[in-house]
Write a structure and sequence with these properties.
Blueprint: E1 3-7, H1 25-35, E2 41-43, E3 49-51, H2 53-62, E4 66-71, H3 77-89, H4 98-106, H5 132-136, H6 152-165
Parallel strand pairs: 2-4
Antiparallel strand pairs: 1-4, 2-3
């Protein structure tokens, strides 16, 4: 794998990128400022982004002229499409062990960017790997739900279901 500092104008976003990543741009820009570039943008043989759209947008926001790039020129067109999806989807398969997460955050402090915010409410409350803490709910755990859709009928149906259980 060869990482090349490439002019940002030489790479192109994938026009059919199904990931809406604007909400992460500021956080990724802060991460780049805090830690530097630790993960390159991956492009295909034509310079089109496979993975790293949010890093690309963060670099633009920061006004960077060059970005680290890896060219995945040995992947077929089908593999490029699959990798583009898989790279983002695999994170959906994971959960946080919030007790360990809170321990890690306690050891860092607020002076270094992590992307997390903490609150006294959540001290030792959640552990997504053990639901007995959630079932007891002694510390007032609350849940939030977010749905983004262009299907108004689906939205209304989900809204009805949520209101039924409130």
């Amino acid at each position: 794998m060869q990482i090349v500092n490439t002019p940002i104008d030489a790479i192109k976003p994938y026009p059919n990128n199904p990931r809406i990543n604007e909400g992460g741009v500021d956080a990724v820009a802060k991460s780049i400022q805090e830690f530097g570039w630790q993960q390159p943008i991956v492009v295909d043989k034509d310079g089109v982004i496979i993975v790293g759209h949010t890093r690309y947008k963060a670099a633009q926001k920061l006004g960077l002229d060059k970005v680290p790039v890896v060219t995945a020129d040995k992947l077929s067109d089908k593999q490029v499409k699959a990798y583009r999806l898989a790279d983002n989807k695999v994170a959906d398969k994971t959960i946080w062990d919030n007790k360990k997460l809170l321990d890690e955050l306690d050891g860092i402090g607020d002076d270094v960017f992590t992307g997390f915010t903490t609150s006294d409410i959540f001290d030792d409350v959640l552990d997504e790997t053990q639901d007995d803490v959630l079932q007891k709910n002694e510390a007032g755990v609350t849940y939030s739900f977010s749905l983004k859709t262009q299907n108004k009928q689906l939205f209304e149906r989900v809204k009805e279901l949520v209101e039924t259980y409130e």
